[in-house]
């Protein structure tokens, strides 16, 4: 398991857990319903040792949890399911997808459409204030605190 940066920057700490391409693809597969090692492996085509290491990291940091299961006549195995912390990463995944669709468009169009369930109304990732109002990114102020790396 990689070492998490001892850094006041939450982005640096988060990347210590999530910062590899394979990790976000594992999360994409989990959101799509994969939970078994074999499903992740076939969906991603990564080496078993790499997949094991990334899944162990996600479990160690509370993004996924291992749940035992046993097929009839088989040995016990584990499935990997998203925790609340893992499900909260959906907004991050969809923000990456939204950015990629806009700035790196695929010739055949997007692979997934984001819609309000049961409707055709599009959904996008954005900033929302405490009253539930969308805030344009140009109006979001980033205010360094005493813990900010730029203040040290």
From TrEMBL:
Residues 9-108 form the HTH hxlR-type domain. Signal peptide: none annotated. Pfam families: HxlR (PF01638). InterPro entries: HTH_HxlR, WH-like_DNA-bd_sf, WH_DNA-bd_sf. GO terms for molecular function: DNA binding. PROSITE patterns: HTH_HXLR. Keywords: DNA-binding, Transcription, Transcription regulation. This is HxlR family transcriptional regulator. The keyword Nucleotide-binding does not apply.
